[in-house]
Each structure stands twice: as C-alpha cells, then as structure tokens.
Amino acid sequence: MWRISMVGITLAVLAGCATPIQKPQRATIESIIPERTPIETISKSPLAIPNQPPPLIPHDPAPTPLHTSLPSRSAIVQSAVRLLGSTTVNMQGRRIGYDCAGVTRAIFLEHGIDLYRSSDSAVNANGVRLIHNHVRQHGILHRDGDVRPGDLVFFDNTWDFNGDGLFNDPLTHVGIVEQIEPDGTVIFISRVAGAIARYHMNLNQPYIHKTTDGRVLNDYIRRKRSTDPDKTARLTGELFSLYGNLLSPQKSAPFQGRSPQHPDEQQASETASAAEAER
Question: How far is CA 208 from each of CA 184, 205, 256, rounded to the nearest angstrom?
Fold first, then answer.
C-alpha cells in the first residue's frame, strides 16, 4: 500500500488543475490534519487567474502492486480526507502532479490502483481524460443519482483548456466524493485553488451558489476571467459532467465495455475530421 506524505507551504490562489508548487517544506501526512474532520462551509469566491494555462500532466506510469480486491469506499474517502489542507503530494520520494487529477491519482495509488493506466492511449490527453479512460474501461460512468462515497465526479469547461476562448472543453476537472447530504448536496474533495479542500455540488439546484440562510449548495469551480462571455457557467452544478464508479461496478447497471463518447469529445472529433478532410 502506498504511503503519501504532504508538505505545507504558503501560496497564492491558483486555478484548479494548475502548475505544481515549488520549494515545499516536508511534513508527514499525520501531522497535517486528523483522519476525520467535521464538514466546514467553504465559499469559493470567483477570482481572476493567470492567463497562462497550466501544462499537461505527466503521463509517466507509476509502479503499482498487483491487487486481488478493490479497496473499500471508506478507505478511499479516509485517504482523501487525510490530504485536506495539503499543498503538495509526494510518494516514495517522488512528486505527484499537484493538480486535481494528480491528487485523485495519488489517493487511488495508495490503494494499488493507477488511474492513469489505460489501454486507450490518448495523445496529449490531460490527466482528467486519462482517469476518465480508466473508469470507462474498468468501471461505470453515469449521470444518475446513484452516487456514493469514494466515487469520482467529473466536470467540463472549468477552464479554457484549448485556449480558443470557447466553451468547448470537456473533462477538465475531477474530484472524489466524500459524502452526500440529505438534501442531495454532494461533498467532494479536490484541488481547485490553493490547497486540497472540500467542495459542494447540488444538481437539484445547480444555479444557486448559496441559500438565503448562507448554506453553500454549489461552489465556484471556474474562475472569472475578463474574456469570459456574460453569464458564463462557473458553479459545480452547472459544469457537472459525469460520475465514475470504480469500487462497486457490479452493483450498478451492466457495463458494456466502453461508455458512449462524451458529447463534447464527439463534436471535437467531428470538427477535427472535417478540418482534416478540407486539407
């Protein structure tokens, strides 16, 4: 089982899935945060972010031991909770990409599963798409309400991945579901801003940030840019794409090998094919 250590540092607020932080000071995971902490209300306000897009996540495979059974949902959640507040992730002296995909990958690597491993090699794919490909081959991708702690949650258009100024960037963010509140609000753990934290999403009321009594339903996950069109979607509920179930796929609908291609990916593929035909 992999052992993760984190290093706390002070840093400016960045976009989710952004550039790794430099010059950390080392500390152990146990000294950063207790294994379980109470849910706190987190209000992520929309902030301006640098114009320079973050680099692609390295796709180098990590050594993973063979495992004969899947980890429990509680084990995955506990690994994610222990990372709350950390600003770097190291494993066996090796830095893991500190962005949403790298953090998610590290949590599963601790339990012998490398989410970047996939027989479907995607050239220049970001880490989120690598994880999506892994779940597509080994689990269940769905959009229904059967979501449980330890599942993955994917988002589209959380930043302008291809830099064209359009709202056409599928699979740009990922997190791990920690719990579901009675009103349907999903609390997930991810790295969006300066450190790994909890975020909220309520698909029953996707366009509401807070209730009148101040309770957060949907956190801001896309930072506001001056170049964004008016009424650009920025809340988690608005940008939700898919859930991913790797931990108990046999309890869900039968998995037919490959899930349908994401609509935005299909459109991008058709556009690329048309452009190639014109050339």
Answer: 14, 6, 35
Other CB atoms within 10 A of residue 50 CB: 12
Contact 127/101 with Cβ under 8 angstroms?
yes
- The candidate with the shortest Cα–Cα distance to 140, out of 4, 250, 7, 271, is 250
Average pLDDT score over the chain: 74
Tokens at residue 226, please?
A: 């001056």
Q: How far is CA 238 from CA 45, 83, 195, 202, 222, in A?
A: 16, 26, 23, 9, 10
pLDDT tens for each residue of 144-178: 889 999 999 999 999 988 888 888 999 999 999 99
Facing residues of 5 across strands?
90
pTM to 2 decimal places:
0.70
DSSP class per residue in 39-98: ------------SSPPPPPP-PPPP----SSPPPHHHHHHHHHHTTT-S-EEETTEEEP-
Structure tokens given for 186: 């999903």
**What are the residue boundaries of the structural domains of the chain, listed by start?**
4-37+64-253+260-278
Residue range 3-40, pLDDT digits in tens: 554 433 333 333 446 433 333 333 333 333 333 333 33
Q: How far apart are CA 197 and CA 23, in angstroms?
A: 21
pLDDT confidence bin for 61, thresholds 50/70/90: low
